[in-house]
Specification:
The chain has 15 helices and no strands. By secondary structure, the chain is an all-alpha fold.
Length: 313
């Protein structure tokens, strides 16, 4: 248990520092959005770019490994959507937003530092494989599902084109694509570009964790906490459980792949959950509460998964 605390303790300590710094006025609330934008639009793309330069594609992009993670994600979406629609009688558009809150993982702000501390730098290429598909696949599906569900949506053809356009402009995907192209070309990266991207990459972890803590100040528990707890449970328990069953028991993958797939799936809901719901103005109360509840409960659940995976594998 001490080893687990050594892994997650510093991570959540930085999150707590960001939270209380903003709450006490030591860091301006107006600066949180800019800090997270810096992480998502500049620092993380450089980190992924550097990662793709040296990644072994035959090892990292293993289909059954990715399938284990994403089948779990879409299962959580489906269950959450059905509960919202048929149990809580939410309209279709709101149900899509609730489903989205249960399947979009905090892969960068929390997943990256925890995976690194738990399993070392050698585990990061496996995480980068998941990150490479995460935002493009899940955001695109969520947008298409929302446009299909809400009555005031645009025609499906237009919605599909808009979704693809947003995916193509995603900074994370741009960083990954440029890294892959450079890797495959065999070209030597100029020293200035190599050093500059490495410097930006080193800023990801502390800035991301501090920014996440600061951002949590805007989320307040409301009457929808019950539904948010259901979405949080699906995210923290159902998703990693399915990933474990498929990766370990069905596909019998290497333990190093199983650990990353399961622990990444066990991460809380990402901030894009709230961004998605506010963009469409659907179930923003549940989205905000899911981000908050899953992050707080993640301290316990992530510790549990680390202990369980250490015992199992």
């Amino acid at each position: 248990m001490i080893a687990v605390l050594e892994v997650i303790g510093p991570v959540f300590a930085l999150v707590g520092l960001g939270y209380f710094s903003v709450m006490r006025g030591l860091f301006p609330t107006s600066g949180v959005g800019g800090l997270i934008s810096f992480v998502n639009n500049f620092a993380t793309p450089c980190l992924l770019f550097q990662a793709m330069l040296h990644i072994d594609f035959h090892t990292a992009f293993k289909f059954t490994y990715l399938l284990s993670f994403y089948v779990g994600a879409f299962s959580a979406f489906t269950v959450s959507f059905l509960i919202a629609k048929y149990v809580f009688k939410r309209p279709p558009g709101q149900s899509v937003a609730v489903g989205f809150s249960a399947y979009f993982t905090n892969t960068v702000l929390l997943g990256l530092p925890i995976i690194q501390r738990a399993y070392g730098d050698e585990a990061l290429p496996n995480l980068y494989a998941i990150i490479g598909f995460h935002a493009p696949l899940l955001m695109s599906f969520g947008m298409l599902a929302m446009e299909f569900a809400r009555r005031d949506g645009t025609p499906m053809k237009q919605a599909a084109l808009q979704s693809l356009g947003r995916v193509a402009k995603n900074p994370l995907l741009i960083g990954i694509t440029l890294g892959i192209l450079t890797n495959m070309s065999g070209l030597s990266l100029p020293g200035v570009i190599d050093d500059a991207t490495k410097m930006l990459a080193t800023a990801v972890l502390p800035a991301a964790l501090f920014g996440l803590g600061g951002a949590l100040n805007q989320y307040k528990l409301r009457d929808s906490v019950g539904q948010a707890l259901i979405s949080s449970s699906l995210k923290l328990i159902l998703h990693p459980t399915i990933a474990l069953i498929l990766s370990h028991y069905v596909f019998k993958l290497d333990p190093s792949l199983v650990k990353v797939a399961v622990l990444t799936a066990a991460m809380p809901a990402g901030l894009n959950v709230y961004i998605f719901s506010t963009f469409y103005n659907r179930a923003t109360d549940i989205a905000a509460n899911t981000v908050l509840c899953s992050t707080v409960l993640g301290v316990i659940s992530i510790s549990g998964w680390l202990l369980f995976l250490g015992w199992l594998l």
